[in-house]
Amino acid sequence: MFERIERVPGDAILGLIQAFKEDTNPQKVDLGVGVYRDAEGNTPVMRAVKEAEARLLKNESTKTYIGSHGSPAYGDAVLPLVLGADSPVLEAGRASATQSPGGTGALRLAADFIAGELPGRGIWVSDPTWPNHHGLFTAAGIALHKYPYVDADNRLDFDGMLAAFNKIPEGDVVVLHACCHNPTGFDLSAEQWRTLLEVVRERRLLPLIDFAYQGFGQGLDEDAYGVRLFAEQLDEVLITSSCSKNFGIYNERTGCLIAVAKNAEQMENVRSQFAVVARENYSNPPAHGGAIVSEILHDPELAAVWRDELTEMRDRVNTLRQEFVKALDPYGLAEKYACVGEQRGMFSYTGLTPDQVDRLRDEFGIYMVRSGRANVAGFSRENLPYITRAIAVVNG
Ligand code: PMP
Fold first, then answer.
1. Does the annotation mark 245 as catalytic?
2. Which InterPro entries does this chain map to (predicted)?
3. Is there an atom of ligand 1 within 6 Å of 36 CB?
4. pLDDT for 255-276, tens place per residue?
5. How do beta strands 347-349 and 373-375 pair?
């Protein structure tokens, strides 16, 4: 039977990582991969995480199953982080968290829930979006559509987005990035969130908000603006939260699917369906990452350490964005790439064309995705002069 199976090409990013490894250019720069890097180019374990793990190792007494919804202590810690400590939604008991293997696992739970319990509804993702959104929702059997997000001049196309939302069939699901839009870095302003809310309400759309970078944009609370607005103002919202980036626990697979319903009764009904979907996919989520997050967030001192570390990461990325634009000024290119200074999060749609990306790789050993998406955390004080000179050459 396997004779007929065709091999598919691997993930383009993995190919990029391999090519980078093999490149012998001593000045080579990796702007491709999707993880945070510090000034030395490392993705270290955060101090708060190390401390939490030491405590867990000492105190852990069992490795029995944690149940399809995961650890209640993790849910109790994450819900206020996402929805706000004084959230009226939590006060009303109309939200709950189901722990999942990463944000990806949460998205898959949401997808299977939608396919099974809300059949016939289409799902709308931004164009462009994180490529895995396409695979994930299609694999669950949901009809996938796109709404515009970026215009031809590499700017947020909010008007185009709004016009598209006004034509989405009633009851369909719309996927929104809470902050640090991947791959573009373009985020909605508070005013734009409020405008969008009215259309979503009017057209009775179901928002599925992907919250993979809380704390990487402007701050833990600032980044949650749209999530909290929608959860407080609408009866029904789905939120997928990931702890991969903000706790730096990528390989622990830690996230959750949050259901916000009209009341506690309906929330429990929806939540019960999440457990079914979780059981069918993987039975129980992995425990360790959730235990780390719970250990940190339930201890005010450790939580303060974590917040400081997260602030350091966020500030580094935002500073590098400004320094990148400044370094392009002598080449007369600061205005052309000003968007990089305005975008938020780890990723930037730079506006570099696929041809320019190829030249940067071949002539300078600078690696990024062909869409022109750069991981800003790959910038450093040392390599910015080299990168910006190379960009000036391929613009010449
Ligand atoms: N959504 C978006 C937009 C992402 O960029 C990512 C991570 N690249 C995820 C979800 C999934 O994150 P996780 O590693 O927690 O599965």
1. yes
2. Aminotransferase_I/II_large, Asp_trans, PyrdxlP-dep_Trfase, PyrdxlP-dep_Trfase_major, PyrdxlP-dep_Trfase_small
3. no
4. 999 999 999 999 999 999 999 9
5. antiparallel
Does the C-beta of 223 come closer than 6 Å to ligand 1? no
Query: Could you tell me the CA-to-CA distances from 385 to 84, 137, 142, 347 in Å, in that order?
Result: 41, 41, 46, 19
- The three-point CA angle 148-154-159 to 5° equals 40
> What does the pLDDT read at residue 14?
82
Question: For atom 2 of ligand 1, which residue has the closest CA?
Answer: 212
- Active-site residue (options: 28, 172, 223, 245): 245
DSSP string for 286-337: -SHHHHHHHHHHTSHHHHHHHHHHHHHHHHHHHHHHHHHHHHHGGGT-TTTT
Closest CA to 122 of 143, 136, 152, 100: 143
Confirm or reject: Cβ of 343 under 6 Å from ligand 1: no
The pLDDT tens digits of the residues spanning 280-291 come to 999 999 999 999
Question: How far is the centre of ligand 1, averaged over its atoms, from the C-alpha of 44 (Å)?
Answer: 19
Q: What is the ipTM of this complex?
A: 0.99
